[in-house]
TrEMBL record:
Record protein name field: Membrane or secreted protein
Provenance organism: Polaribacter butkevichii
InterPro entries in the cross-refs: Thioredoxin-like_sf
Domain of life of the source: Bacteria
């Protein structure tokens, strides 16, 4: 009988258990709850930088504001709890919006974060006050920016729609539209799970599409 060692338990928790969860979620059609669209067709980040886009990407969007230095804790939380978990996923990115004129502060933030991770999927985008307010306003989150900053980060799907929760037990009206990056528990228990659900949703759609193609081929269509 195989001895249940501490090493085997750790290996199971790190590799085998997540794989089992993935197989359960990805088997069959529509056997998991899709993440709700809470706002359709938000303003694309290409309006600030033509080299960037939300299209065909799963994006986490954050707003750095005018006082970047005092808000660093949340960005480190986002990097550790979310970015590092999904850096290997294709089509994943973090979009960090900051006001024009704050390039030096952004440079310092990037330097500090890069000491712990590869920044390849962090994209920093500068915009005017008007552009930033317009972009954030298109999310219809119900919360205004403060000094062009918010502790909430937002999840945008490949079609440029804002995703979130409509039946969140911890929210007053049940809606969770932004995720508080100052809350490690919220990042861990909610945003991470919701990003996974979104990836599984696209995986299931891709799988179903290929199965339908195979079925049509078999019947000569």
């Amino acid at each position: 009988m195989m001895k249940l060692t501490k090493k085997r338990v750790v290996l199971f928790l790190l590799f085998i258990f997540p794989l089992i969860c993935f197989l359960i979620l990805s088997t069959g059609k529509n056997n998991f709850t899709k993440l709700p669209v809470v706002t359709k067709g938000v303003v694309d980040v290409s309006t600030l930088d033509t080299l960037q886009t939300f299209k065909d990407r799963i994006s986490i969007v954050c707003f750095l504001g005018n006082d970047i230095d005092t808000q660093k804790g949340g960005f480190f939380n986002l990097n550790e709890k979310i970015y590092k978990k999904f850096i290997e996923y294709k089509k994943f990115q973090v979009i960090a919006i900051y006001p024009k004129g704050k390039e030096e502060e952004v440079k310092q933030l990037k330097k500090e974060i890069s000491a712990f991770t590869d920044m390849v999927k962090w994209n920093f985008v500068a915009g005017s006050k008007e552009e930033i307010v317009t972009l954030h306003g298109s999310f219809n989150s119900g919360n205004a920016l403060s000094n062009l900053y918010t502790s909430n980060v937002f999840l945008i799907d490949k079609n440029g729609n804002l995703r979130g929760r409509l039946t969140d037990a911890d929210s007053k009206d049940g809606k969770l539209i932004g995720y508080n990056m100052n809350s490690v528990s919220e990042l861990n228990a909610k945003l991470k799970d919701d990003v996974l659900v979104l990836f599984y949703e696209y995986y299931a759609a891709f799988k179903e599409k290929n199965e339908n193609k195979a079925d049509r081929k078999e019947v000569g269509l």
